[in-house]
Amino acid sequence: MSSVEGKIAIPSSLRYRKIQSGDPVKHLVYVLHGYGQLVEYFSKKFEGIPATDVLFVFPEGRHRFYLRGTSGRVGASWMTKEWREEDIRLNILSLDLLHTEILKSYAPEKITVIGFSQGGATAARWLANGNIHCDHFISWASVYPPDLAVEEHTGLAVKNTFVLGTEDEFFPKADQEILIEDYQSRGIHIARFEGTHDIHPETLISIL
Question: Tell me: the pLDDT tens digits for 187-201?
């Protein structure tokens, strides 16, 4: 008796939402959500942003699950440790296809990519290995993935910014300054705000 693992290619889809402010669109902003979030609700954090000529695009992670038990609220994630190489490949492929589709309808002068929490690592891998030119990469409460070489971090976009709340529960205060000093030494811009692990509208507005 033998046990052999196999795989087959299947058709799939990527769900996303858009928020457009003004026409024509001059600034395209992709926003990748964090672990356990859905774009239907995550995108609401950006609805009140007073931006002009901006298109926000929110792709959703392909893995959905019940946040507690086997019923109730549902969240999405970008990957787990299981078969991670395939998830990374499919995330990059899906985001490339989404970007191609968006550019069929819009011709932005500037492209920004925001990766929040778990979405930051997926965004960084997309910029490093996908087919997109990014003017500004904002890693929001997310560390750069260890599988990217150190010198690649500042090569992801023309400008790179790291955002972190002073009370972020996933970044112990003892480690915050060490991390920030390391990122600053690599030429990464730093933005801080008084708050926890969340999108801070005033900080977002000032960066954009």
Answer: 999 999 999 999 999
What the chain holds in terms of domains, given with CATH numbers, is 16-207 (3.40.50.1820)
Is the pTM above the cut of 0.90?
yes
Separation between Cα atoms, residue 58 and residue 102, nearest integer Å: 12
Binned average pLDDT, 10 residues per bin, the chain of 208 residues: 92 95 93 98 93 94 96 96 95 98 97 98 96 97 86 85 97 92 93 97 94
Q: Is residue 52 left, alpha or beta, with left meaning phi > 0 and alpha meaning psi from -120 to 50?
A: beta
In the three-class reduction of DSSP (H, G, I as helix; E, B as strand; rest coil), residue 204 is classed as helix
Output DSSP code: residue 72.
S
DSSP string covering 111-151, please? EEEEEETHHHHHHHHHHHHSS---SEEEEES-PPPTTS-GG
- What does the alpha-carbon distance between residue 64 and residue 74 come to, in Å, rounded to a whole number? 7
Structure tokens at 34: 């964090």
Tokens of 202: 């005033």
